[in-house]
Write a structure and sequence with these properties.
The complex is a heterotrimer of chains A (615), B (292) and C (378).
Chain A (H helix, E strand, L loop, with lengths): L2 H26 L4 H26 L7 H22 L4 H24 L7 H20 L19 H19 L2 H11 L1 H6 L4 H27 L9 H14 L4 H17 L7 H15 L12 H16 L25 E10 L2 E7 L2 E2 L4 E5 L6 H8 L7 E6 L2 E2 L5 H7 L1 E3 L12 H8 L8 H5 L3 H20 L15 H14 L4 E5 L7 H17 L3 E5 L3 H7 L2 E6 L2 E6 L1 H6 L1 H13 L1 H11 L1
Chain B lengths: L1 H31 L6 H18 L4 H24 L7 H23 L4 E2 L9 E3 L2 E3 L1 H23 L1 H11 L1 H6 L4 H26 L2 E2 L5 H13 L5 H21 L5 H15 L14
Antiparallel strand pairs in B: 1-4, 2-3
Helix pairs in contact in B: 1-5, 1-8, 1-9, 1-10, 2-3, 2-4, 2-8, 3-8, 5-6, 6-8, 9-10, 10-11
Chain C lengths: L1 H22 L2 E8 L6 H20 L7 E8 L4 H14 L4 E3 L4 H14 L3 E3 L14 E3 L4 H14 L5 E7 L3 H16 L3 E8 L7 H10 L3 E5 L2 H13 L5 E4 L6 H4 L9 E5 L8 H14 L7 H19 L4 H10 L1 E4 L2 E4 L10 E6 L5 E7 L4
Parallel strand pairs in C: 1-2, 1-3, 3-4, 4-5, 6-7, 6-8, 8-9, 9-10
Antiparallel strand pairs in C: 10-13, 11-12, 13-14
Helix pairs in contact in C: 2-11, 3-4, 5-6, 11-12
The chains are: A alpha/beta (615), B mainly alpha (292), C alpha/beta (378).
Chain lengths: 615, 292, 378
């Protein structure tokens, strides 16, 4: 049986089984209106929590105004249904699709509005923006005529039903799962893990932040619509800061980034107050103690980032049966095609800089830097600490905007482009301090880097259209292939931060290569490595030259490594190239020796002389 | 013009209260990076302590002030040890959630002990307001502005110059490195909480003199405003927090006075958002680029 | 085998008939109120009033020899919790009628459910007009915001002789905004000049800005659409600003004495209420004595009295109908005339009581002083 088919079949039957059980119980009266009402509220809260998990759990931004989107959805849907059913005489049930969708869309528009400031902000500053927007929405709703002012709207037809809530909830959960497993979901996750690295692999952080906010708001709007048709009245005061906090608590208790966790937490925390009805006075007291204890003893939440998988449970059960019944599983090894060569085939320099320079205030950090990199070449960039090596890398990758000069990639200028655009154009890099997507698996780290090489849309990812399936299948093969080239196939499914140090470096290089770069920038890859690890690194870099068609620019202090593998070397000091040539030429260059050793001897004088000498 | 001045003074009065509470908030927020949602509730605890001491036990005002500050400090340090310390290495959002838990716990304990009904705070000073022309400045406003300014200067000196202050900043920059340099991290963080909570105690007193009504949920709003001031001022920057506290007070007052009392919250939040868009690292915060 | 099944089925049916029949020994009424949270004092006041009446009734033999039991559920003043509470009481506990909820939004949610189920519901405190509109089984024992606004506007014009008035209210609070609107509409109709309408936000403690605006506008009387806790802050701050104005307000003011420290300021405060402690009818004296005996203190809010009356109206109707069957009880309530502690309660077409308001003030020690009674005909 096909694994994917099995997972679909299992989950679908579980969804239907749960539905049929609950529905029959409700219809027969075994679950009365009270319990049915609670079940529906659980459904609504699950939608809210799962959607907030997208911004807070997956994207990793603290959002303090999620209830605001819910209120926008609730008012919009409530007003539309009321109007259509009273003035046009529509059946309220028939209004639902229109009003729910409209509520979702208007809420999404608000989410987009909040997402836009995210262009510039992050962390607590962004949190304040979400809080502020939530409050602004509330105050405006409380003072508008259409929304009934302070009283809110009353007598919205109470036409929400259990099946409706249930299936919308299931739809939202499915969308979250499929989105999370598409290239777009991986992009969002990678931003949480390491925004700088995500940007360098060609992911537009801004665009995905806005996307996540808009998407989450859309679902919150739908949940609001359901709420309006469930309770029959909406007042803005319900959806205040405290309500937003309530949902945030559900997300964190469930586990940030775990959809299953969100579902469990939303269900438990909706049920809990009803169970504690008998302890009226002590209910909130108990709740607060539970909250503190929960965080102290399980800071990652109920589920952490893990998901409950029916397929795994099924497999475990089947495995157990097989073992006890001694049935042999059929043997099938996946077939992998050979490693392709990524051909570029250019005679002209792949990367060229002309009189590149940058000035920070009064400090000229780099000046008149002319580099040329050819395909399939390993070039070293060395120089004493503070010589401006990383600054050059940052200019090449668009982190800094050069104040003078030009950078040409394959003959075209890339100055002024965003980091993620340059990443997509073909410059990949690694970082001095390793920047992996730590809590993602090794394979996922690689897949994130394939982002720009895939083209299926968010819709295609969510609905798993043929294009998604085709591209993902291809990417899975290629990602595993790439790992195989670097002998890391074994570690494909372990978390990136579980790798030993040397392997983490290797994975970072591997990830950079996965973007199919024309130029690979390695920033001190041997830093912190022991001699054995360094030797392995040399092999890895050698492998890159042999198997990939890419120009490598290497910053390194380990002279043995640099002299061992580089074909050419640029020496940088005080932001200028002071020497260039083969390793042998560089080793004998007096100016280079002075740059490295001269500091302690001549101090400021050498500095002076150098600046003037080159001017 | 007189109306404008009066409204400006009203704004400075509320702003001074925000600033005062924000100072204590920023101490903790700047050094431990904890969004301490329970800060306002510590203030509530201090207020109840003061009411119980002054009304039920008949303790004179200066003694009650010191005693309620000590109560705040005791609560703050105990809460830090029990609820925040174990989570120092966990993701920040975990301690945020415990802080929310502590906030609920304090509010609901107070409600069980004292009921939800507000209690009046006894009058402390009966000094008539200062009147210049048509402009009147109440004594509490003057006092609060003065106390807030003095505390800000004092604290800033303390954090910048003193040994403990330097230790605090070291802990804020890099806890591990600070430990290696011989800084007693636990002690330093406890001291930070103690100072922050003592400030909440002073804040509670001035708050109650200005608005003589003590209720279990009284800390929520000032706590939220202090959080906003602490972030907007630039994380960990005391003068910034104080400045934003005053700006918020004046913005609220002038909006209510001359724009709209209905939409004032929306307008004030709107102003804050615009400020953040132009100063994404806070008003006095320096733009920090993540080093790549 | 067939016999066995038949016996079992008969047994099961018998049990299912007997069980409710056994429960019929007591009459179960559901109570919904905000018993926790910031509005708890109103919920507890309502609960106290109902419990007082029911304990007196039960001591006197109950209804037709059956004891009355009130089952309370907390709604935390929120609409969705009130809906849950309603469903629990009706579905799980099988109550025949509902007393409460307390605040208007929660009452609206529960009343909507009660109206579609046909279950009788009487609220003691939801003063918003629309609560009983088109809901035949929903009643109340308090007067309405429009009536209160009318009474206080007339009082401001005639007794306080003010010509310029201002109103202050809490933005986004249904009770506050509704009451303010009613007052402003009526004040304008009476030819008063409304010089300022000032809003505040939830949990605000500083009202000096609004008061400064009002001071500048030259108002002689300020209508406070607030509860007592906020009103006490406003009175104190107006005093600090040296304002020489009178204050008026609605039924929410009644707990102001608890939260104000300078009681002498209260002599400027006039408000309308459902009930006065100073009425010297026997029934009021008995109520106050009973309350004192049961709770060890005097009632601090007037909703205890309207709640006492709500319980009396409902129990009287059940007795009159001779059954707990909802339609009969609803009809009996509609036809009832109840001698309550807040006056005689009869219902109009809109299911609202036709009753008087009492205008009250305080002396310098904070004791309630009766000013006048305003009848609904005016």
């Amino acid at each position: 049986m096909n694994r994917k088919f099995k997972s679909y079949a299992l989950n679908l039957s579980a969804v239907l089984l749960i539905f049929l059980t609950l529905y029959t119980l409700i219809q027969s009266g075994a679950i009365n209106k009270y319990y049915a009402g609670i079940l529906i509220m659980i459904g609504i809260n699950v939608i809210m929590t799962v959607s907030l998990n997208l911004t807070t759990g997956f994207l990793g931004e603290l959002a303090l105004g999620h209830a605001g989107f819910m209120s926008v959805g609730a008012f919009t849907a409530g007003i539309i249904t009321k109007q259509l059913s009273t003035s046009l005489g529509w059946d309220p049930l028939a209004c639902l699709p229109v009003s729910l969708l409209a509520g979702g869309i208007l809420a999404a528009a608000m989410g987009f509005l909040i997402g836009v400031p995210a262009l510039r902000l992050k962390g607590d500053y962004l949190a304040i923006i979400t809080l502020g927007f939530g409050e602004i929405i509330r105050v405006i709703l409380q003072n508008m005529q259409v929304t009934g002012g302070a009283a809110g709207i009353s007598r919205v037809p109470r036409v929400n039903t259990f099946p409706l809530t249930y299936f919308i909830m299931i739809a939202v959960i499915i969308v979250m799962f499929t989105l999370g497993r598409s290239r777009h979901g991986r992009a969002i996750l990678s931003i949480r893990e390491n925004a700088v690295a995500a940007e360098s692999t060609g992911i537009s952080v801004t665009r995905y932040k806005i996307f996540a906010f808009t998407f989450a708001a859309f679902f919150a709007g739908i949940a609001g619509g359901l709420y309006a048709h469930q309770i029959g009245r909406v007042s803005a005061a319900t959806f205040d800061f405290n309500k937003s906090i309530e949902y945030l608590v559900m997300v964190v208790l469930g586990g940030m980034g775990s959809i299953t966790g969100s579902i469990i937490a939303a269900a438990v925390l909706t049920l809990l107050p009803e169970l504690l009805r008998g302890f009226a006075d002590y209910r909130m007291f108990l709740y607060s103690i539970l909250l503190i204890l929960m965080m102290l003893f399980r800071p990652k939440g109920l589920m952490g980032t893990a998901e409950f998988s029916l397929t795994l449970v099924w497999d475990a059960a089947a495995g157990f049966l097989r073992r006890t019944l001694r049935i042999r599983p059929r043997d099938h090894t996946p077939m992998l095609p050979d490693v392709p060569r990524y051909d570029v085939g250019e005679e002209a320099p792949v990367l060229e800089t002309g009189r590149l320079g940058i000035r920070f205030g009064g400090l000229q950090a780099a000046e008149n830097v002319n580099l040329q990199l050819y395909d399939n070449e390993i070039v070293g960039l060395i120089g004493p600490n503070g010589a401006g090596k990383t600054t050059v890398f940052n200019m090449l990758t668009g982190v800094y905007l050069p104040t003078e000069g030009d950078i040409r990639l394959m003959g075209r200028s890339i100055v002024g482009k965003k980091t993620y655009e340059i990443g997509a154009d073909g410059i990949a890099r690694t970082f001095q301090n390793i920047r992996l997507f730590k809590s993602m698996t090794v394979l996922e780290n690689i897949k994130v880097a394939f982002h720009t090489r895939m083209h299926y849309s968010a819709a295609s990812g969510i609905f798993r259209l043929p294009r998604y399936a085709r591209e993902e299948a291809g990417i899975d093969l290629r990602a595993r292939e790439l790992l195989r080239v670097f002998n890391m196939e074994e570690s494909a499914d372990i978390r990136a931060d579980g790798l030993p140090y040397g392997q983490q470096r290797k994975l970072e290089i591997c990830r950079a290569l996965a973007t199919n770069p024309k130029v690979l920038l390695l920033d001190e890859p041997a830093a912190g490595m022991n001699p054995i690890e360094t030797r392995e690194l040399m092999e890895t870099i050698g492998l890159i030259r042999d198997r990939f068609s890419v120009a490598v620019l290497l910053i390194e202090h380990d002279m043995k490594l640099v002299m061992g593998i580089c074909e050419r070397i640029y020496v940088l000091n005080y932001g200028r190239v002071i020497a260039t040539g083969t390793p042998a030429e560089i080793r004998d260059n007096p100016e280079v020796v002075r740059a490295y050793l001269g500091h302690s001897n001549t101090g400021a004088k050498a500095e002076e002389g150098e600046t003037h000498g080159n001017a | 013009m007189v109306l404008f001045l009066n409204q400006l003074i009203n704004g400075l009065g509320t702003g001074a209260i925000y600033a005062l509470i924000a100072l204590g908030y920023t101490m903790v927020y700047g050094i431990v990076k904890l969004i301490n949602f329970a800060h306002g509730d510590i203030m509530m605890v201090g207020s109840y302590a003061a009411v119980v001491l002054m009304v039920n036990a008949g303790v004179p005002f200066p003694v009650a002030l010191v005693a309620s500050m000590l109560v705040c400090v005791a609560f703050g340090v105990a809460i830090e040890r029990v609820a925040y310390k174990p989570l120092r290495d966990a993701p920040r959002i975990c301690s945020l959630i415990t802080a929310i838990g502590v906030s609920y716990l304090l509010q609901n304990s107070a409600q069980l002990l004292f009921s939800a009904n507000p209690r009046p705070f006894p009058p402390v000073f009966s000094i008539p307001p200062l009147r210049i022309g048509g402009v009147s400045i109440s004594f509490v406003t003057l006092l609060t502005v003065l106390v807030a300014a003095l505390l800000m200067v004092g604290l800033n000196l303390f954090v910048m110059k003193s040994r403990t202050g330097k230790a605090m900043r070291a802990v804020s920059e890099d806890m591990g490195a600070a430990k290696l340099m011989g800084v007693n991290v636990n002690m330093t963080i406890s001291t930070t909480f103690a100072i922050g909570c003592a400030l909440a105690g002073i804040g509670a007193f001035l708050y109650c003199i200005a608005y003589p009504s003590v209720a279990p949920t009284m800390g929520a709003m000032p706590g939220l405003k202090a959080f906003i001031a602490a972030v907007l001022g630039g994380i960990g920057i005391l003068p910034g927090a104080m400045l934003v506290g005053f700006i918020m007070g004046v913005a609220e007052s002038l909006t209510k006075g001359f724009v709209s009392t209905q939409l004032s919250d929306a307008v004030v939040y709107g102003i804050l958002i615009v400020v953040l868009l132009f100063k994404p690292s806070g008003l006095l915060g320096r733009a920090q680029r993540e080093k790549v | 085998m067939k016999k066995l099944v038949a016996v079992l089925v008969t047994l099961a049916m018998a049990v299912s008939f007997i069980l409710p029949a056994m429960a019929e020994d007591t009459i179960k009424i559901g109570g919904i109120a905000c018993l926790t949270g910031p509005a708890a004092m109103y919920g507890v006041g309502v609960k106290n009033g109902v419990d007082l009446y029911v304990s007196e009734l039960n001591a006197a033999g109950g209804i037709d020899g059956k004891q009355v039991e009130v089952l309370w559920e907390d709604d935390e003043a929120s609409a969705d919790k009130a809906a849950n509470a309603y469903n629990k009481l009706v579905q799980n506990d099988g109550v025949c009628a509902i007393l409460g909820p307390v605040v208007s939004s929660a009452t609206d949610a529960a009343a909507d459910l009660a109206a579609s189920d046909g279950i009788p519901l009487i609220t003691a405190s939801a003063t918003a007009y629309y609560i009983t509109t088109d809901r035949p089984s929903v009643f109340r024992t308090c007067f309405l915001d429009p009536f209160q606004g009318k009474v206080m506007a007339a009082f401001t014009a005639q007794e306080l002789k003010a010509t310029k008035v201002a109103a202050m209210y809490k933005n986004g609070d249904e009770y506050s905004v509704g009451l303010k609107d009613a007052f402003v509409t009526e004040a304008k109709a009476l030819g008063l000049e409304v010089v300022a309408e000032e809003a505040s936000a939830d949990k605000d403690v500083d009202y000096k800005t609004q008061l400064t605006n009002i001071k500048d506008s030259g108002a002689e009387a300020i209508f406070l659409a607030y509860y007592g806790d906020v009103a006490s802050l406003i009175l104190t701050q107006a005093n600090e600003l040296g304002m020489d104005v009178m204050f008026t307000g609605g039924d929410g003011i009644s707990n102001i004495t608890d939260s104000i420290s300078d009681k002498s300021l209260l002599t400027r405060m006039y408000y309308s209420d459902h009930f006065t402690n100073s009425a010297d009818s026997e029934i009021v004296k008995a109520y106050l004595a009973g309350y004192q005996a049961m709770y060890g203190e005097m009632p601090s809010i007037s909703f205890s009295a309207t709640a006492y009356d709500a319980a009396k109206v409902l129990c009287g109707a059940i007795a009159a109908a001779g059954t707990t069957e909802p339609d009969a009880v609803v009809a009996a309530i509609k036809a009832s005339s109840t001698e309550g502690v807040t006056g005689t309660i009869t219902y109009d077409d809109h299911n609202d009581p036709i009753k008087s308001a009492f205008i009250l003030t305080y002396d310098a020690q904070g004791n309630q002083v009766f000013v006048k009674q305003q009848d609904p005909q005016q």
